[in-house]
Design a protein that fits this description.
Blueprint lengths: L7 H31 L6 H18 L6 H17 L5 H9 L11 H4 L19 H18 L12 H10 L5 H14 L3 H5 L3 H8 L5 H18 L8 H4 L7 H11 L9 H9 L8 H9 L7 H14 L27 H5 L35
Helix pairs in contact: 3-4, 7-13, 10-11, 14-16
InterPro entries: DNA_glycosylase (IPR011257), Endonuclease-III-like_CS2 (IPR004036), Endonuclease3_FeS-loop_motif (IPR003651), Endouclease-III_FeS-bd_BS (IPR004035), HhH-GPD_domain (IPR003265), HhH_base_excis_C (IPR023170), HhH_motif (IPR000445), Nth (IPR005759)
GO biological process, one term: base-excision repair, AP site formation
Enzyme class: lyase
């Protein structure tokens, strides 16, 4: 069968149309996409009604878009703590820290406002000697002496004697014992040996037997017999009236010498015995412990004419009120002037029971307060047990 001839016009147009079709479809697709971007699709009524429900569901899943006030505060607190824990936080964390409210520190009162106020002391006590001026120390010391002179206006040596010889012997015997014990011993001694010549020639054993109650009787026998011999050989049996001569006698020191000079010859002197040493240190008149230095320090506070009476006042006060172990502070007439107030009993009633008086009575005899030393007319009363 004979094939038909090919129609070039038809066959040539078809491929061209086929090639143009894809290009047309691509252009239409591009235009459709641009139209879709330029003009969004219209929502239907059902889609609009479903939109709120969809938004609510999304809100439950993703959380609210806006943050409430409480949430803001909680978020700020978290950021602040995170920024504090991480010192190298960024600028955002620093901004949070700076904007966070600062905590107010509690106000603390100064120490002066909270310090406890000390109660005023019952007694007005003077300053210690190292804190007061020299002038104040002199005034206080002399005032103490004046006060004691009013309390003990009849203060005198409590050793019984009739002449300088008896006084020097009694003073030597008073070492390491009481004046009362010496006064109980010397009458028998002086009755048997009334002069230095008699005592110098006595039998040592007989003297020892008489002096036994005073304690250290062998050493004391040697001293009183030695000084009696020195008086006979060097001073014609008379007691010298000069300090440099008295201290040359066996058993006689500066304390004994001043007792003799002040009470037998009327020459001023300071007697630094154990009571005197204790009290002047309590009163802060001096801090010295050597008797010679104490004598010089205290003597500089008073006129020379007061030295003998001052010694009596201090010694009497030390024996009766200002005791070594338990001073009667509550019954002390010079308590306001004493820096050591409070070392002893401060209760007035209890302190009164500590007062002592030995003259003419038993050791440790109790006595009344210092005012009892005066009679009804305010005049000095005689010593208790005297006569």
């Amino acid at each position: 069968m004979k094939k038909e001839p090919r129609n070039e016009t038809t066959s040539g147009a078809a491929p061209a149309e086929k090639r143009a079709a894809p290009a047309t479809k691509a252009a239409e697709a591009t235009k459709g996409a641009e139209a879709t971007k330029a003009a969004p699709a219209k929502k239907t009524a059902s889609a609009e009604r479903a939109a709120p429900a969809t938004k609510a569901a999304q809100a439950k899943t993703t959380g609210p878009a806006k943050t409430t006030g409480a949430a803001k505060k909680a978020s700020a607190a978290k950021k602040t703590s995170a920024a504090q824990k991480t010192p190298r936080a960024g600028k955002a964390a620093a901004a949070v820290v700076n904007t966070a409210p600062l905590r107010k520190k509690p106000l603390i009162a100064p120490k002066k406002a909270t310090a406890a106020v000390k109660a005023a002391p019952v007694k007005t006590v003077v300053k210690p000697s190292e804190e007061e001026s020299r002038t104040a120390l002199v005034r206080r010391a002399r005032r103490i002496n004046r006060e004691l002179a009013e309390v003990f206006p009849y203060a005198h040596p409590e050793l019984d004697f009739e002449n300088p010889f008896q006084l020097v012997v009694a003073t030597v015997l008073s070492a390491q014992t009481t004046d009362l014990r010496v006064n109980q011993t010397t009458p028998a001694l002086f009755a048997k040996y009334p002069t230095p010549e008699d005592l110098a020639a006595a039998n040592p054993e007989e003297v020892e037997e008489i002096l036994r109650p005073t304690g250290f009787f062998r050493a004391k026998t040697k001293s009183v017999m030695g000084l009696s011999k020195a008086l006979v050989e060097d001073f014609g049996g008379e007691v010298p009236g000069r300090l440099e001569d008295l201290v040359k006698l066996p058993g006689v020191g500066r304390k004994t010498a001043f007792v003799v000079l002040g009470n037998a010859f009327g020459r001023p002197g300071i007697t630094v015995d154990t009571h005197f040493q204790r009290l002047v240190r309590r009163w802060r008149w001096t801090e010295e412990t050597d008797p010679d230095k104490i004598e010089a320090a205290v003597g500089a506070l008073f006129p020379k004419s007061d030295w003998t009476d001052l010694s009596h006042h201090v010694i009497w006060h030390g024996r009766r009120i200002c005791h070594a172990r338990k001073p009667a502070c509550g019954a002390c007439p010079i308590a306001p002037l004493c820096p050591a107030y409070g070392e002893g009993e401060t209760d007035p009633e209890k302190a009164k029971k500590l007062l002592k008086y030995e003259k003419g009575g038993l050791p440790g005899q109790r006595l009344k307060p210092p005012q009892a030393y005066l009679d009804a007319g305010g005049r000095p009363a005689p010593p208790l047990g005297a006569g």
